[in-house]
Design a protein that fits this description.
heterodimer, A: about 325 residues, mainly alpha, 9 helices, about 0% strand, globular, B: about 500 residues, alpha+beta, 7-stranded antiparallel sheet, 6-stranded antiparallel sheet, 22 strands, binds protoporphyrin IX containing FE
């Protein structure tokens, strides 16, 4: 079972790599086709409230929706054949990857006779799984953002690669300190929040790129901007994802505190992991605050969200690997 | 005078602005970072001492900056106190406004409805304004009808949630403060067996910390005997389960209680947590006069296989001669490996226990009045030559013995288990927990709630049944377009009969 899990991880990584390549192909060659397709779907469908993606250049002035549909349709049909396979293959590969990813987690749990969240390796597998599921849900509901897939796949391959190469741990039962039902509650919600924050980070970073591009900035990374959904789509989406993740994160931290009380006798002790959880919480609270403050620019607020993800990464990797504390159960030597 | 007043008013306005709150939040996050990078006294005193040893020049400077007590430092406190003052200054006026808004009726329609984000013309409602109002009320809108125009507002819960969230933050802070004033905690190493019984007084703690308002005489009185301790391991040596059994006396008749990691012993006014465990070798030393003494010496585990180190001292041996006191430095291996070197245990459970003893004789230096570790010999005495190793170390099995150069004898009788316990009480805990629960409820209401307004105004000259409708979301709300069109559709089909019943009920019922 444990070996099956390891093999499925490789399969998942490969699938995400394939999806990344397909997205890249779509980006490189099928840009207009892809944009036109999504735009058509949105304008034709009822999709109220979502800003349509711009036709070719964001600086090309506003196209009236109605005119847009006809002109875009023409373009879409001409380019569809050439490019749609890449986009479709990308989504297919992602779905295939998710299934392998799920299989990898389930096999791991079966091998260990417990939830697969006992060490850092398994935790990263879970966070990325939640991230990719959240991403697929999002992509199904908002076709306009599907083009972010390249970056989501990139993040997945990176994180899973690090998990497999650096963090890999043999299947082991839990140490006594982790034997508690709070383990399931705390770790699952922390992984859930982290997975959503991960997707939120991708949209936040892409918003910053796109916003820079729309302001006429040139050069890398802003040059990537013209292939991205508009800032007007990305920014509210980023906010939504964070408003979803933040209460879950709050709950996860609180559940951790309840557990810490039972395990160590105090609900909060400024252990490095707790300290960084606090820092992340404060930074994300700062993001929501900044977002609600009219005098703070949206791009400034979004930078805070990016900073929030960096603090999450610090907690996930930095604290487990470099600090010594009560939470040192990463299982990585 | 007025200058000062203006300055004060200005500063207050500055402090309670969202921007200041933002800066303070950011500062709070930054200020917490050194607390994770540097060892903290509140977390691990030994590692602070280690840092002092490793950086003798830097550490005292950092210490003067409270770098080893970050979360108790004046600068960290200053940030959160300012933040909470700012929060109060921000929330109290909002609370007042919100209470007012809850009592008030939805405001009048703006003059130009077509300028609003949502807008629908020629909405025909057979029942007129009453029907519109009834339809809105049915959907839990708060409604005001003025001169044929119907105004509706919904989503007050958002602001309620926001205020609840921020007030709950204050609750968390109060709970923490309560805990630091009235809470206390202590640590104690407890060897199994009736002679190891410990009673809950400060004299019997190994170390402790009492809150500012805790009287040491008022700690709950109880005694604890470790009756049994079991640890089970995998073949790899990884621990799987710990189980401690204690006899608790002091609350009525003595009772037998079980506890473990993650499952503390809850007693009235105190909880007892299992933190660690180890072995205490039992040694019997027979001195030159033929007098035998027995000691139980807890050894400290040095690795995951419970290789343990410690000292067994016999200060009263040899007739109280200060220069002929005896002590043994020991290395205890619960499982002696099959082949040498015998320096590391092969497994944490006692499969093949062995005790390597290094005999010492001389002045142990116990009477100097200097507190010293019970796990180590006094290095000063060793260096001064007042205490010296006598003879080669020997590896003893349980029941084995070794004879020193002066003919005296030490026997290894076996081991006892010991546990380290944390005994704690924190009356702030329920306050913090309740506040966090409210915080979460408030947060969700605030983040997912949506304040929005709608208006239905009769089109002038078209009779009382044709309306212009408009809607205004007062927060980010992508779905408002949908809701608005559904609402307009529902209002259109509102039946007059329903309307009458409803509006009568509304008039009778409490508003
Ligand atoms: C302990 C410090 C604080 C924390 C952790 C904090 C956190 C938050 C969070 C997470 C939100 C977004 C969720 C929500 O809308 O309820 C929020 C909203 C808000 N906070 Fe704070 N806050 C703090 C202090 C303050 C202070 C000092 C002020 C006043 C200057 C303030 C004013 C507001 C306002 C007005 C909103 C609502 C914005 C909106 O209309 O959506 N907060 N706060």
């Amino acid at each position: 079972m444990s070996m099956l899990s390891d093999q499925l991880l490789v399969v998942a990584i490969l699938a995400y790599l394939v999806s990344m390549l397909c997205y890249a192909v779509e980006h490189a060659f099928g840009l207009r086709g892809a944009v036109a397709r999504t735009a058509t779907r949105e304008l034709v469908g009822a999709g109220a409230g979502v800003e349509p993606a711009p036709a070719t250049s964001p600086r090309g002035g506003a196209t009236s929706p109605r005119g847009g549909v006809t002109s875009l349709r023409g373009m879409a049909t001409s380019l569809r054949g050439a490019t749609s396979w890449a986009g479709r293959a990308a989504v297919g590969a992602t779905v295939f990857g998710v299934l392998a990813h799920l299989g990898c987690l389930v096999a791991r749990g079966l091998a260990a006779h417990r939830m697969p969240w006992g060490n850092m390796y398994e935790f990263v597998l879970t966070v990325t799984f939640i991230g990719v599921v959240a991403w697929l849900v999002l992509a199904a509901r908002r076709p306009a953002v599907r083009r972010l897939g390249l970056y989501v796949s990139l993040a997945l391959v990176t994180l899973l690669g690090v998990a497999g190469l650096v963090l890999y741990t043999e299947v082991m039962p839990l140490v006594p300190a982790l034997r508690s039902y709070w383990f399931v509650i705390h770790v699952s919600t922390a992984a859930l929040a982290s997975g959503i924050f991960l997707v939120g980070f991708v949209t936040a970073a892409m918003y910053l790129v796109r916003a820079g591009y729309e302001q006429g900035r040139v050069g890398f990374p802003y040059s990537l901007g013209h292939r991205l959904p508009t800032a007007g789509v990305l920014e509210p989406l980023t906010f939504r994802l964070h408003t979803l993740a933040f209460p879950i994160w709050t709950f996860a931290v609180a559940a951790g505190a309840v557990w810490a009380e039972a395990a160590w006798g105090r609900y909060w002790g400024w252990d490095p992991k707790e300290t960084w959880a606090f820092i992340s919480w404060v930074v994300y609270a700062g993001y929501l605050h900044a977002r609600a403050t009219p005098s703070v620019r949206r791009s400034t607020a979004t930078w805070i969200a990016v900073l929030g993800w960096l603090t999450m990464l610090m907690n996930l990797f930095g604290v487990n690997l470099f600090f010594e504390g009560l939470h040192s159960y990463a299982g990585v030597d | 005078m007025t200058g000062l007043g203006a300055l004060a008013r200005n500063s207050w306005r500055q402090l309670t602005s969202m921007r200041t709150a933002l800066v303070l939040l950011f500062l709070l996050a930054v200020a917490a970072i050194p607390g994770s990078l540097l060892p903290q006294r509140g977390v691990n005193v030994e590692r602070v001492a280690g840092y002092f040893a490793a950086h003798p020049d830097l550490a005292p400077v950092l210490d003067r900056l409270w770098a080893f007590d970050v979360f108790a430092s004046p600068w960290f406190s200053a940030i959160y106190v300012l933040l909470f003052v700012s929060l109060a200054g921000c929330v109290v006026p909002r609370l007042r406004d919100h209470v007012r808004a809850l009592r008030a009726v939805p405001p009048d329609a703006p003059r130009r409805l077509d300028r609003l984000p949502q807008h629908a013309d020629g909405v025909v409602v057979a029942g007129g304004p009453d029907a519109v109002a009834a339809a809105l009320r049915q959907r839990r809108w708060r409604v005001a009808v003025r001169g044929g125009t119907v105004a509706g507002e919904k989503g007050y819960l958002k602001e309620t949630g926001n205020l609840l969230f921020h007030l709950a933050l204050v609750g968390v802070l109060l709970g923490v403060a309560l805990g630091s004033w009235y809470g206390w905690h202590a640590n104690r190493l407890l060897v199994a067996g009736p002679d190891g019984t410990f009673c809950n007084t400060v004299q019997q703690y190994d170390d402790y910390g009492l809150g500012a308002r805790v009287d040491p005489g008022e700690l709950p009185r109880f005694c604890l005997e470790l009756a049994d301790f079991q640890a089970s391991y995998l073949d790899s040596g990884q621990p799987v389960r710990y189980a401690a059994t204690a006899v608790v006396s002091g609350f009525g008749p003595a009772s037998v209680r079980h506890f473990s990691v993650n499952d503390p012993l809850r007693l009235p006014g105190a909880s007892v947590y299992l933190l660690g465990h180890g072995y205490a070798p039992v040694l019997r030393y027979t001195d030159r006069a033929g007098r035998a003494q027995t000691t139980v010496a807890p050894f400290l585990p040095a690795d995951a296989s419970l290789t343990s180190e410690g000292v067994a001292a016999f200060p009263d041996a040899n007739g109280g001669d200060r220069t002929a006191q005896v002590a043994f430095e020991g290395l205890y291996l619960p499982t002696v490996p099959d082949s040498p070197p015998f320096v590391r245990s092969a497994y944490p459970a006692e499969r093949a226990p062995g005790l390597m003893l290094f005999p010492y004789r001389g002045d142990l230096g116990l009477d100097a009045g200097i507190p010293q570790s019970v796990y180590q010999l006094d290095r000063g005495q060793l260096a001064a030559g007042r205490l010296a190793q006598v003879g080669e170390p020997e590896l003893l099995r349980v029941g084995g013995s070794m004879t020193l150069d002066d003919g005296t004898r030490v026997e290894f009788l076996g081991t006892r288990q010991w546990v380290t316990l944390s005994i704690r009480h924190d009356p702030g805990q329920p306050v913090v927990l309740a506040s966090v629960a409210l915080l979460l409820v408030g947060l969700m209401a605030s983040l997912f709630g949506r304040r929005r307004r709608v208006w239905f105004r009769p089109v002038s000259g078209a009779g009382p049944a044709v309306f212009t409708a408009a809607g205004l979301p007062r927060s980010d709300y992508l779905g408002f377009t949908d809701e608005f069109s559904r609402l307009v559709a529902a209002v259109r089909t509102q039946r007059p009969a329903e309307t009458r019943q409803l509006s009568q009920a509304q008039q009778r019922g409490p508003r």
